[in-house]
């Protein structure tokens, strides 16, 4: 990939994943340990300051990244699996099956993301499960639609007809002939869905219906940060910057992937 | 004639989606902890009230009959009673509609007036594509709750002349609208940019360039009209984004709108309000999409003649 922006996005994303891995082994300390005075500005022992309970912000931010990233990744993988099946089946079979699946998708698509997330939180009760289910339900419609659109095109290719004539069974046709050819679409959409997932987790946890304290997630940290913004601006700066960089990096990588899988021409008029 | 048929098809499809939405919400309310009677009446309902409710919604009958009763009540505008205020949910929502409506409307206006020119500009100056991508990416990546909190902090701490929090008059909506539209501006700019870039590679633009027409003439006469459809379609999607975003912005700025009310309701387990709020948001989205379809049908004559309906 030649453009510097996509490469920068990939580097950022790699760093974020590394930080998340580092937090698993408590590289920067225990996120729940009280290390200093409350709301202390950055200093030795707590490089990014402390929060309202005297916990060091650095390991908390690292834990937050890990929680948010893990939650969003798992949810997006679930979405990818479901969307791949639904989209390919709908695109290949058409008819009533297609109509049913697309109608279901249309219904989910009718809810603004955070509104759907709130409904889910009301059903499951606040917590990680609600956040996970919300991300899945919010990201499924778009991915299923696009996978289906790609599958419709592939289903009419000659090699699919040839496979049918040679007596291949349905699972083999879908798995061997359709799936590999819509994989690019899925890859691009997984990237975008990941950024949506992080945003949904953030929003839901910010409202208090997602990840529950004392566990840290980016949304939880930002929510706590806004409460103490006047007294301790470092509490929101770190998580806020990480959140923005993460979403930005993922979107930029997604754009890069899209340009690679679905190249577009560009013309400069001026 | 064909156009009218196509519109009718869209309307039927929208109605079917709305029905699906109602089934989903009905199922969700049934799955909420505490059961339907508690959900609607609250935990302190008397046996008489429960009996009355069971009679009205047919709680002793099959789930399909129950759904029918529920749907009939909802269609009459009967969403039950808020368990906190004991007022009908409808009048509670109605009282909060102006704030949410104005907030969303202002944000759509700002997003269109800023986002469309920005999108055209970044598409036409494709050489600076990376800068445009970074800027629009930044707009999408800064969540409302971070930007909103920052604005509240700055304006409340340094007395910058605009109210940041609470609601007195329209002035109270200036900052929330700006925060809310920030996200929408980048989406609008992005979509406009993609649409314009798609048109710019069309042969008729090449022909126009070859004829020596000036860039801005080409944009006005060839590009904008042909790029308009995805942008108009976007407006419905944008409004859905904004309805969701309004919920968080109202919460951050402490505005007495529908969004912050629904957020409170989830926290207080006031499920009758949650149910009505969610249904309202989905309905607005579906109706808006239908309206946009009608407008697109008018703009794009090709739509009337294809048998498949919406173009891919």
From TrEMBL, chain A:
Gene3D superfamilies: MetI-like. InterPro entries: BP-dependent_transpt_permease (IPR050366), MetI-like (IPR000515), MetI-like_sf (IPR035906). The chain crosses the membrane at residues 65-92, 104-124, 130-147, 178-211, 231-254. PROSITE patterns: ABC_TM1 (PS50928). Keywords: Cell membrane, Membrane, Transmembrane, Transmembrane helix, Transport. The keyword Transmembrane applies. It is a multi-pass membrane protein. Residues 65-254 form the ABC transmembrane type-1 domain. PANTHER family: OLIGOPEPTIDE TRANSPORT SYSTEM PERMEASE PROTEIN APPC (PTHR43386), PEPTIDE ABC TRANSPORTER PERMEASE PROTEIN (PTHR43386:SF25). Belongs to the binding-protein-dependent transport system permease family. This is ABC transporter permease. It comes from Phytohabitans aurantiacus.
UniProtKB/TrEMBL annotation, chain B:
InterPro entries: BPD_transp_1_N, MetI-like, MetI-like_sf. It is a multi-pass membrane protein. Its main location: membrane. It comes from the Bacteria. The chain crosses the membrane at residues 7-29, 103-124, 136-160, 172-189, 227-253, 273-299. Keywords: Cell membrane, Membrane, Transmembrane, Transmembrane helix, Transport. Residues 97-292 form the ABC transmembrane type-1 domain. Pfam families: BPD_transp_1 (PF00528), BPD_transp_1_N (PF19300). SUPFAM superfamilies: MetI-like. It is found in: Cell membrane. Belongs to the binding-protein-dependent transport system permease family. This is ABC transporter permease.
């Amino acid at each position: 990939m030649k453009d510097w922006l996509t490469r920068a996005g990939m580097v950022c994303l790699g760093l974020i994943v590394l930080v998340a891995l580092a937090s698993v082994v408590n590289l920067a300390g225990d996120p729940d340990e009280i290390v200093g005075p409350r709301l202390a500005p950055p200093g030795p022992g707590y490089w990014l300051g402390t929060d309202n309970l005297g916990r060091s912000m650095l390991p908390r931010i690292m834990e937050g990244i890990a929680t948010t990233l893990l939650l969003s990744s798992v949810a997006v993988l679930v979405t990818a699996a479901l969307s791949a099946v639904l989209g390919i089946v709908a695109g290949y079979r058409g008819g009533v099956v297609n109509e049913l699946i697309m109608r279901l998708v249309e219904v989910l698509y009718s809810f603004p993301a955070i509104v759907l997330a709130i409904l889910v939180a009301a059903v499951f009760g606040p917590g990680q499960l609600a956040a996970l289910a919300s991300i899945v339900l919010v990201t499924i419609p778009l991915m299923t639609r696009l996978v289906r659109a790609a599958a419709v095109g592939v289903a009419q290719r000659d090699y699919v007809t040839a496979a049918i004539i040679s007596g291949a069974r349905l699972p083999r046709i879908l798995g061997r002939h359709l799936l590999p050819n819509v994989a690019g679409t899925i890859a691009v959409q997984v990237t975008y869905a990941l950024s949506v997932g992080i945003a949904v987790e953030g929003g839901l946890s910010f409202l208090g219906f997602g990840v529950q304290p004392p566990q840290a997630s980016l949304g939880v940290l930002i929510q706590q940060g806004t409460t103490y913004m006047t007294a301790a601006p470092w509490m929101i700066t770190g998580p806020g910057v990480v959140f923005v960089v993460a979403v930005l990096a993922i979107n930029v990588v997604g754009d890069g992937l899209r340009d690679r899988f679905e190249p577009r021409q560009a013309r400069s008029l001026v | 004639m064909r156009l009218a048929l196509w519109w009718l098809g869209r309307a039927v499809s929208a109605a079917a989606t709305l029905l699906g939405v109602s089934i989903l919400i009905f199922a969700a309310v049934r799955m909420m902890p505490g059961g339907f009677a508690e959900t609607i009446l609250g935990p302190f309902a008397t046996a008489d009230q429960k009996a009355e409710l069971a009679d009205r919604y047919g709680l002793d009958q099959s789930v399909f009959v129950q759904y029918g009763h529920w749907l009939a009540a909802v269609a009459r505008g009967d969403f039950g009673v808020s368990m906190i205020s004991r007022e009908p949910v409808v009048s509670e929502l109605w009282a909060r509609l102006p704030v949410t409506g104005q907030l969303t409307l202002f944000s759509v206006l700002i997003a269109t007036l800023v986002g469309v020119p920005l999108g055209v500009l970044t598409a036409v100056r494709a050489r600076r594509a990376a800068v445009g991508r970074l800027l629009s990416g930044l707009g999408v990546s800064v969540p409302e709750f971070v930007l909103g909190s920052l604005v509240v902090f700055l304006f409340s701490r340094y007395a910058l002349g605009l109210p940041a929090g609470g609601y007195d008059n329209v002035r109270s909506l200036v900052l929330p609208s700006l925060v809310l539209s920030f996200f929408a501006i980048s989406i609008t700019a992005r979509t406009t940019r993609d649409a314009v870039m798609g048109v710019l590679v069309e042969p008729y633009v090449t022909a126009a360039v070859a004829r020596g027409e000036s860039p801005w003439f080409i944009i006005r006469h060839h590009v904008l009209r042909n790029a308009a459809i995805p942008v108009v379609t976007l407006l419905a999607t944008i409004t859905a984004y904004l309805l969701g975003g309004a919920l968080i912005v109202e919460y951050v700025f402490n505005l007495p709108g529908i969004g912050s009310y629904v957020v409170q309701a989830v926290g207080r387990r006031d499920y009758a309000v949650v149910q009505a709020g969610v249904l309202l948001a989905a309905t607005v989205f579906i109706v808006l999409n239908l309206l946009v379809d009608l407008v697109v049908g008018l703009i794009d004559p090709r739509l009337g003649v294809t048998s498949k309906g919406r173009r891919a």
